[in-house]
## 1
Amino acid sequence: MTKNLKQDIAYAARRLSKSPAFTIVAVMTLALGIGANTAIFSVLNTTLFRSLPYPAANRLIHISEQKAGGDLPVSYPDFLDWKRQQNSFSALTIYRTANPVNLRTGGSTDRLSTVMVDRDFLRVLGVQPMLGRDLSPDDDRPEAAPALLLPYATWAKRFGGDPEVVGRAVQVDGKTATIVGVLPSSFQFFNDADLVLPLAPYVAQFYMENRESHSNARVLGRLKEGVSPAAAAGEMNTIAAHLAGQFPKSNAGVGAHTVDLRQYLMGDAKQQQLLLMGAVVLVLLIVCVNIATLSLSRSFAREREMSIRVALGARRPYLIRQLMVESLLLSAIGGGLGVFLAAGLSAALNALVPHQLLQFGGGSISVLNLPVLLFAFGATALTGIGFGFVPAWQLSKANPSDALKDRSAMPKSFRGRFNSSDLMIAAQVGGATLLLITAGLVLRSLWALSDSPLGYETENVLTLRLASPGARVNNAPLRIAAFYLNAVQRLAQVPGVEAAAATSDLPFGGNDSHNPFRLLDRPAPALNDYPVAPYRIVTSDYFRALGIPLLQGRVFDGTEPMPVLASETPTTDQTLEALRRLPVSVIVSHSFAQHWWPGQNPVGKGILLGSPAREMAHCTVIGVVGDSTQDSLGQTKHEEYYLSLRQFPFFGEYSLLLRAHGDPALLIESARKQIKQMTATEAVYDVRPLSTRIAETISAQSFQSKLISAFAALALVLATVGLYGILAFNVGRRTREIGIRIALGASLNSVICNVFLRGFAMVVPGVVLGLTGSWAIGRYLRNQLHGISTTDPRTFAVCTAALILSAFFACWFPARRAAKVDPLVALRDE
């Protein structure tokens, strides 16, 4: 058996080497199809199939609070109550990202990103420090001395992998902190965090001790053995309802939302990735049909050979095996090249994976792992069988008497009208139509998203972050405000700067601050009906720096009275008391004004900021500005308001933006120098033009659109080449017939029409099939499109026209070739 297989492989190799053009085209086509499928599967393997690197990861649950159908960060006091009252989890833990800190070791200071966790974080995930110990209850107390854990990358890079680092004292924002442990290299839950700090000592600094404060905190839990996720969700909602009854002013209408950790990390990327996988599978099917069509065309030339072999005693199973070996050998060569192609694409495919999941694969996608290689092997084998079976089955039916017959006539038809090749061409056209329309919809959606009006000018705007001066000024709010106001004033004097401003939430910077409020000219709403709106704390030139138009009233002028605080570092109650005594000015967006005061002049209207539990400030509207999209492209809600940094200096860190007269990149060095003259300890970082930030928010969608477009273009080329190839082959086989018809008086136009219409007879059903499929999958695409419908007539028309145009040329050139047949040459050749 082994000997026969070797002979079959050797014979197949000889046969393929005698048709180099067909072999090269087939191998390259297979490499593209199998390589694309392998590359996209490697993405799915990273996100959907590979388990999270934690013990019993299926029991890890992400928990958030929920109000009016929307998820909220978890209130720290609520978390503490959850922890005390729940019985479904072996442990609960809370974590939050925080502003970067200055880490001083020896004579150098570095700006490092941080994440803050409670003492049970590693225990919930089932991770042990590589060196030292975990955070203890003593570390996780409000009055505790600062302690920190080092991620492996920070330990290796900044401490040289020193095994004696545990117990070393370092300076974190001017305070002495002790390194208590080093995390293992396999722990990458926070792939962008340089330090891990205990949360409790910083709760007051972030105003998290207030129950109504939802300050960027997330909760994880590990289910107990035997407890189902549904049971845990029910218990958490029961606890939330109890808290709503106990604390109606802060918790009315607040529930709990539980979801599997993998599902939370995946977000909405699953649909996008499955769409891509569907596209590449369709491309691979088109590849199979294309090569099967070419093989069928070649098979007609081998009918005489097969008939002779049957006459000499070859049995049908042997012929099928021999022909299938040829197909599988061809597929194996294409599959091997496809794996190398997929490996080359793997780095580029990182953009398709949410960074939270990508980190678990070591920071990048790899095709050199067992599941992906097994998939490539399976795809290669199935592809070889897929495109080889129909030609093999047809050839194996050879009749010995056919060896003596003239086989120049057309191959047998399917039910007297179409043959197998015709049906395969129709299938290719249908698949290409489906892919073209899908790509067209995705591209048009991306264009609509990119072109959606922002409400301001993004060109010539430079954005930068400035390390918080909080540690240097003991986190004194008024001193922090003075620092940023001074920075804005100095940056405005830099040559080339038109306007400079500071803001608590940089446009497209990933921050999102909300606060409840009520209108003073209306009765107070029910406790669970307080509206919530996003807000930004800005300096007076913010609107000029962005180009947001003033519609009514005025903007901040820099003379707003500042709060009078009881101490440099006031408590929350002292801060609230100071704000209640302060006449606060507020600017609202046009949508905010239209929603709450339709048909009225909003200037002079009063707003009470804060929840019923903690009323913060009485504000008076001084102006209305235009709506602006500053959180995400495609944003539909623009009801927001703005506060003055002079009156709300309670953020630890603000961002800066500059409007330049020309290229904003030319201001980078000048801005750095100006800040350096103010302070030698606070570093400028994350410096980018605003247009770059916006482009990055849709980079994954843009990459997905380009991939689908590339697959659609490949499908169009394959369908066109397949149609051209089968028509050209048929014209060659019909040379004698066409010559006779011309000799008997057939006009050139009739010959052209005969060949052309036969080709289009394969195209029309394929187009109809593709249009029907495109309409059917529209429901799946609905949530991934922006600004267009799933049956957008323009997209359907343009894509269909593009395919028909390609099909026209694929049919026209063989038809013209048929019209040029010389009857005498054709008859003499026979």
## 2
Amino acid sequence: MAMERQRASGVMAPASGFLARPRRLLAWLRARSTREAIESSLYGFILRNSARDQIILVVLTVASFPILYYSLELPKTIINHAIGGRHFPQTILGVAFDQVTYLLILCGVYLALVVTNGLFKFYINVRKGRLGERMLRNLRYDLYQRTLRFPLQQFSRSSGGQIITMMTAELEPVAGFIGDAFALPIFQGGTLLTILVFMFVQNPLLGAAAVALYPVQGYVIPKLQRKVRELGRLRIRKIRGLADRLAESIAARVDIRVNDDAPYQLAEISGRLEQIYEIRYESYYRKFFARFLSNFLTQLTPFFFYALGGYFVIVGDLSFGALVAVLAAYKDMSDPWKELLDFYQDQQDVAIKYEQVMQQFDVADMLDTRLLLERPAEIPRFAGDVVASGVTYRDPDGVYRLEGVSFSLPLATHVAVVGASNGGKAELAGLLARLATPTTGRIAIGGVDLASLPVGVVGCRIGYVGPATYLFGVSLRENLLVGLRHRPPAPDGAADKPGGAQQALDADWVDYAQAGVAGPEALRARMIDVIRLVDLEADVYELGLHGRLDPVLQPEAAARLLEARRRLAARLAEAGASRVVERWDPHRFNRNASLAENLLFGTPVGSAFADESLPRQPYLRRVIDEAGLTRDLLRVGAEAAATMIEVFGEVDTHLDLIEEFSLVRPDELPDFEALLNRIKDADPAALGAPDQERLLSLAFRIVPARHRFEELEDDLPARILEARDRFAAGLPAELRAAISFFDEEQYNAAASLYDNILFGKVAGSEPNSRATLHAIGAKIVDEMGLRDLIIATGLEHPVGTGGTSLSPAQRQKVAIARAVLKRPDLLVLNEATAGLDGTSQAKIMAALRREFEGRCLFWALHSAVLARSFDQVLVIGAGRLVESGAPETLAHPGSALSRLIEAG
């Protein structure tokens, strides 16, 4: 019942176990989804969401005050009666105690009171911290949900960087304040009041002296802090503006570089930083002056205590123990007063942050929460006509982009939308995908207004791809699944056994039925089909060849790749092309591999034996020292550096020759030249450690068959083989997992699929070696049915932040594949292939026409020539529907379509 009340009220966020239960998670989401209005007041938000917890904190706080009072009273009793008393024995509960025993008992009670008071504070502080973090988590969740509900045009006014800053850094102080909102002022105020009552009980004049200056501080300090708060508001606005400009500069980094705009950008950022600095400086000046004044007034009070208290002790109106207790109490009194002043300052600062953040998230025309989160259990497929009735759309600046557009099309129609790029066709595509809603008029499918449909329905039945796309920084496969992940499945028996429900985030969210498949294996096959459909097969295949698989998890796949390795060696031998690949042999030096690869004879795992770490790796250095190789490798490195400087020192740094044959980057050449000047005729072994590491690093990169250095023509290869055996034999246990050695009969989990099949190095000196290898290898892959396995491995390739490891054309193809994979009834494409080459564009268009036979394809084209293959054409000009009909009907001379085609 308690959990049900929490879910119904939405006051308490789910605990970690609650988040682990899919049905409870969805119930909590729905409960929070009922909150349409944003709470503009900080205290309104706190009371609305944590009233019960605040009451508990207040009750606990008040309960601690009697303990505090007696902990102040007891020292006086100890001094006056236990230490300075004369009437012993003392009786407690009928038991008599001598002076020492009585003193120890009172000290023990005092210690118990101190511990109890400390435990109260500990529990209250922990509870406050937990409450604050939970409320901050809920607040951020609510704001993120509101962000998802923003009308998309809102992001043209509020940048992503500004929203992120508000949801993270600016809200961080809210967590600490929420727990303190009521408990801290009551606790500190109650502590202060308890101490004052104690002082007045001891002597009214001393109590009056203690509070004499508080009204002055209470009046003056807030007035000084008011200006600090105003400066705080201004600083927040300036920092937001700086965050926006920094984000713009990073996004426009290419344009800044090619246009030599860096000096201006630096000047502008410098100006903004100077403004923030001036605001900060004035804020510090005022804040610390207020603190100085507060501390000065606080320190005046002891003057009255020492003067008045000393006088009363001398004349006998106050005991010495009472004066000591009062002085001790006053020392404890400064902390709560300071805490109250700090709380007032924090309250003002946090309230400013909260209110300014809430203003930015209080946006008009947001998507209804129920439309965002509610999803019918069964989503019927669309049927009927696509009808636009008097559709008018006005952008956030009030400019009309579409006016009075009306049409009716059967759902199975393939429609081309053509017109000028700014004529309204892109806006029409966005309206049909429900990315925006018409200002007036409506768009309906089968008589149902799109604006009334939940996002769950639209997301399943309508696909959309724009002229640019964003990919998440996960694998290619995970990006393709975005259109199929809607809700976690409800585990069997979850309703009866909520504690046994599986983890929501670890559950399989994929809607296989929507993709038209029965399970994961069938979905993988479908993904590969879609990859081929969008002309991405060759790219993903290449990614897969350079990908890796785990032979423990996929033993059958590893065995098939080992068989491909054997077949490749046999076919090359049959074709008389064995020299195309120099295979790995534990007893032979591989002239097409680098010295490092020959020495390690394996694939590094992790950073221990990575290229940049080799010259500094202690065990490897010991091996080459013991093998007498260090001095020779240093000489090889020095000769390599001299050769690189001689050959490439004057070569244009943009030539491919450097990338193909140079061992160093062009910007490294001056450093190596300086290093050689330090050597001159000296022994390289006399160099310092950093210089030796640079030369060794250079030597390790040398590939004998490519670089042909004379130093390698003596017995160096044979000695490297000896060092190889020494390296493998003595490898410490803690380093054995850091390298996967080459073994002809074993799959190398650390190496790529390509390297596992090849099991060697391509001989670059052999004519047409790569073409020969590709032809034979491709034939083996196809006859063994390995192509799909390699593509599936390529699907696990991480695409980088925003998909930056893929080209723009590849990202567009992934976006189209993602939309196709979810099998929408209506696919809206807004110049989605404009960035592709003509051949790829033609392939994709023909494939999509076939794939969507019987379903609606609505394509805003970048070129009117492409409209000829569609069933219907809509010509949009200046925001109006100029003409519509079959392309052969509209192709007559003088028509709007003909003019667009002629214009190219």
## 3
Amino acid sequence: MVGQGLIAHVRKENDESWVPPHTLTEHITGTARLAESFAEKFGSGTWGRVIGLAHDAGKGRLVWQQYLCAKSGYYDEEAHLENKHGKMPHAIHGAELTEQLFGKEFGRIMAYCIAGHHAGLPDWSSAEGAGQTSLQFQKGQVKDINAIERQFVDTIRQAKPASPPRRFSRGLDLSLWIRMLFSCLVDADFLDTEQYMDSDKTRNRGDYCSISELLERFNMYSKKLDNKAEDTKVNRIRRDIRNKCVRMAKEKQGVFSLSVPTGGGKTLSSLAFALEHANIYNLKRVIYVIPYTSIIEQNANVFRDVLGEDQVVEHHSSLDVDDITPQSRLASENWDAPIIVTTSVQFFESLFAAKSSRCRKLHNIVGSVIVLDEAQLVPVDFLTPILETMQLLVDHYQVSFVLSTATQPAFKERMVDGQFFKGLKDVKEIMGSESEVTALYQSLIRNRIQFPSDMQSVSTWEEIAEELGQYEQVLCVVSDRKSCRELHKLMPVGTYHLSALMCGQHRSEIIEEIKDKLRKKQSVRVISTQLVEAGVDLDFPAVYRALAGLDSIAQAAGRCNREGKRDMGQVIVFNSPRKVPNGILRKAADTTRGMVLANDMDITGYESFERYFAELYWKANSLDKEKIMTLLNPSENDPKECSIYFRTAANKFKFIDDGQQKTIFVRYGKGGEYIDLLRSKGPDRWLLRKLQRYTVNVYDNEFSELTRRGAIEEIFPQVFATSSNLSYSEEIGLLIDEDLYDPEKYMI
């Protein structure tokens, strides 16, 4: 054995000489201390401590120590990453030990966390296809549990928790608690390992302002904003909305709705509520959950202007580089900043994830205000597990939610056609009573929405292009990117194109050009997918929208006469020559068409949205299409075995099927420079954050075609980038053979 005691980790200094090893005692006690402090936030500190002590007990075997320190004196820096090919397992030994020490009732809960702290939370058995990764199979392979050093066994035995923090309800309650414990363990393990492997990273963590300091900065910014703002009707209404948010922040924690028409200043008003509410209830962070990266870029910049450049963390990369190297694994985000801006995909998929890197941050959701911006865009196919998880976070993890949107979805629990819809309980509207909200919406009417006189008639792209060409300033929003490119080709030279085939940096620059031309009253025409609908602050005198869900139409209308500087803007809805993409999007459009044909109410008024969403949810094939509720509920499987299918649920809970998509870095702007750095230096947190601005997602068939043409290359294992500038257009983004498009697929 090298040095004194058993060893947890080893590393070289400057890739040359070995430094003194990280002892196993140091590591498990350091991890246990951190995990206990994290889990204490939700009344589970003793559970966090014991899984911290047991997680690496499997390294306390002579055979593992010999594996780490071979007879030649060579050390393996990656030996502890057991999910790397060819590495000797150790996690399952700690998992099996806790079951032997504490029995199935307590030990099985710990076993899920400990067995998965490198490879990810396992399924209980192979019934759902987990095979040799299942906890049941792994447990059966442990033959040398008695070989663990007695000192570790005794320490773990003495740390036994008295009981769980509460009696768990049926549904997702138990699985969410286990995932939260897992998060505490994973983050504690990462942080303690990081302190040894890369102490510079440790020193750079946690240098943020407190919520009270951020609130003070916000209040100073608001005063300056009010002093320099024009005294217009819209600005007076926005100020009233913000002031009401501040007053309502005193209400007790729970679920809040913020129903404000587009252009009403929801971004700053919701931040005012969140900071004030967090300050009153001693909450640690504000998390903004936003549907599209195009809005994230805009809102994060606003927050940086208000609160400071270094106080906001954006986390929305679709690149999954955990376990590529020890360094990249340690660089994964744990949301330790006071202001987090992330996507709906990142947030909700993490709540149902199995991978350690995705779950690491979850314990930092505890004690936070979570603002769901454009809440109506939560996918209907997963609505049941999402709403139940949100309610559990409110009930047991000191979370407050704000559902912020102009088109408030029907998330409240209710009876629908004689059946109970288990939604969110006790939702409090920040803007007041229904009559007060209705009056607010009426006060901010700035345009008229015109539907086709014949809801069955279809316009050709040539007809739409001719109409659009008659305007000097006009925005047209369509429902898919093929339609966007087809219509754009028919428009006059200089017409702008916006879609997700353009990287975030590209879109941001184009949007700024558009805004500048609008301010200068210059000619500007834009063809876009719906990425401009939610939160992008554009102000056109006229907007065209292909028929879609009522919420999408209302959001598109929010880009028309946004500042109220014209008497009334014009919004034209038309029937596109291409059908609305299949699935929930087509059902949304059909619901809108039915409401227009019924003609029994003002369907553009605030009162219509609850009816629209209730009808849409009723039309959905399922609000839990992948049976997530069953997979994560032990009472639905084998309660005696605490049978939970974490990995299968994680694989099925995908907003976008990433099994059919690839992320590509593109050489636009500084993207090429960053790609070259990634190739030479490998993944690092700061570099990956920079590269988030230069990514495009494509489907597998498109990826294959790009590969065949030599348009992309693998610059790191499973990391791909365009091989030259020729595959990316500064007008329309990534160039893909148009024949590859499937019009039934939906990607904005």
## 4
Amino acid sequence: MMRFSIILFAIFFFFNSTFAKSEISGKVSDSTLAETIIGASVTLKDAKTNEVISGTITDFNGNFVFEIAPGNYNLEIKSLGFEDKNYTDLNLEEGKLIQIRALLSAKQKNQLNEVVITATRKQETINSIYTMQKNARSVSDGISADIIKRSPDKNTGEVLKRLSGTTIQDNKFVIVRGLSDRYNAALVDNSPMPSTEPNKKAFSFDIIPSSLIDNIIITKSATPDLPGDFSGGLIHIQTKEIPDENFNTISIGAGINTVSTFNAFQSGKRGSLDFLGFADAKRQLPKNFPTQTEIMKLNPYKPESSTPYLKELNNNFSIREHTALPSISLQGTLGRVYNLNGNAQFGITGALNYNHDEHIKKDLLRQYDNYDYRDNVYNYSSNLGMLLNLGYRNNHGKINLKTFYNRILNDQLLNREGENYSSSSRIKYYAFDLVQKSLFKTSLNAEHKLGKGNAVLDWVASYNLITNNQPDQRKVSYSEMIGGNNDYAADITTLGKSNNRLFGNLNESIWNGALNIQKPISLFHETTIKAGFFGQYRIRDFENRYIGATLSPNNTDAEFIRQLPVGSLFDDNILNQNVYILEEQTGDLDNYHAEVSTLGGYAMMDNKITDKLRAVWGARLESYHVSIASKEKEIVDQQYLDILPSLNLTYSLSDKANLRAAYFRSIARPELRELTNVSYYDYELSATMNGNPNLKRTQIDNIDLRYEFFPRSGEVISFSLFYKQFHNAIENFVYGANSSYDITPSNSLSAMNMGAEFEIRKNLSFISANGFFKNTSAYINMAYIYSKADADNLYIRGEKINSRPLSGQAPYVFNTGLSYFSNDGKLNLNVLYNRIGQRLTFIGQDKMGIIYESPRNLLDFQISYKVSKRSEFRLNIKDILNDPVRFYFDQNNDMQYNGTAFINGNIEEGKDWIWQTYRPGSSFSLSYSYQF
């Protein structure tokens, strides 16, 4: 069904049955409150004679439209209580659309004479996002579609790097103010987004193409109408509802990586549709495969009874080698807008997106405790995405249906060699791991004007479906005694964590609904009241099944078979000799069913107490219930009732400067897997990942102070102070003995962080009004954070640890960049630099030490050039410095990396252990886009 839908969408995308119309349209808003103005008078005039050609008034959403022949026009906008605004010499071409975003300023009370302001369309568009930020209810940062369009960023993950205090991990996971995924949340088109990862709370922001974004706002202090489960930032992405104009765009790109591309790439057997993101169904566990009870009845001394079942599985363990190909990026987008009777509009926005990459983590080093390993990890990845938005609006309201689907296939092969000194052996280890993930999201939202007043009712209903499928994770370990003569033997005499086959499935459905109403009332200078109700219901089913083949105890050729290469170990020639027995290792806790319900409501008031002082305050009530059971045995049944108050104060020092203060309470809940008794073996980390049914949710008290100044269009200077107190912070602890490691989440009693944040975005024309500096902008944003968490009963190598940083918290974040645009708008240059400070990843005990992630310097360069109005080339160079990725055990607790303790097979005191380190390589990509 999904493949059929994609084919239909592709046909729809490339079939262009409509003709573009020439029109001038726009939206009129209040520059102070950033709210739409209903009933504003809009007059269209001839640019030469200034004669009136047509006139209209703005609708319920502040929109207007003129379908008109090509030519030069002037536009005049008037509204009672606001200063008039004129736009001159608008050059409308055949089949094109001119979009105006008009911001009207309120007349002063003592103003007698008429004031007419003349502005350019380009300046107004850029200024709109900063006007929104300046007049927002809370502390926030944003970026508009116009700025995104002028940047070379391909997806939302790349765009987010440009926002203050924000960094991105793996080009998709967001970090705000140094706080990791757990403390951030995402809204897409007013609908809460689920986690795209099965084992942690994290949304993959790379799935939304940047060309479909209208704006992005990161809220850093909560108001009652926003979800309460964030502390770092709430990332709100608004995709395009009705496009500004009809368009079709196709983009094609290719890239290389200095470590991966054109180097030897290893993998298991490929499926015919792997390149599209759809794994071969033959890799799944056969439907008629025997149950666990049936396998338990098999006679280990009669392997012939197991052979038929084993032959039903994919037993191709051969390793193929080819040259890693360049990455591929394909994207197609379309937009259609139809003007209907009664000043109504209907619009369609759609996209198809495809990416493919073959990446190598080469010579990844692991040197800790009794391990001295060197890994080569080969990842074959395909990503297919689709987006379709439908929108309708008229004078009385609007309604939108927004849908997207994203599918990712990651097929990974790990090849490991090294020494395990605890068993005095050298090892060779192979892991074949295919994971298919998908996210389907659809939402219906609407906004309605009630009666003759200014009351507005809006609602949203959405559905999300998440799947995560591991059809056949296969692991095989070989070993020999240190000093042996290359006589490696496969460890297949018993079934264990390093020698089994995992078949895993996760399916989760999420329903969301919300209803909000707001209405202005007569109180103070201006007051708006807002209230609403919301609900979410989640169902997750998870199942892991572990099986494997072990040598029959009465086999006489065991040693010969054990020394076969991995590609021959389970082929038909060996299976036909009836040497293996089928075993099951699945436990009662390897599956669970979870149900989660969240219900609540809120009430808030937006008081403009005076011309300068504004207070937004209220409270949110969230009732949360989670129940998890495994094979009808209850694991978790928790219920919380949280009251989340908030207060945001804004004092306007001038029309360009604000002073803000805020307090809000928020929460962070454990992910479902963290609450279960399910344990799984992470073969890359050589560690068992556990859950903890006793985990509690985290409560966080947040305080913010901020000064912000907007010198002129597109510029901002801001300085912030913030403080956060965490109660029952959720952190991951590492426990280990004799080379056996467990990672378990637990609650720390308390933690805190405090910090300062600074941002400046400034055009450099103050250096020189002409030439290079006139067209160059610079931005710097940095944050310094001090954090401290409870270290009760924490000992490292016998020494009591009194304090430590909060897990996942970086001590500093630094972003800076330069952007240049040529006078003709054809050439765009960007240089970007990012560094995030050392972060605590896992809390180690006893001999291990705390595990930190070392800082990295990230330097990117981007250049784009418009060959014509329709076509453009873009070159990206990412991670130019290629600094190492490094996680290490801090053995002497000095919070800095002192070099590896493993030197020529000996362990040197005073040095640190390496959890993992490798260089990812620099990436070069070139793309070409064409609009028609």
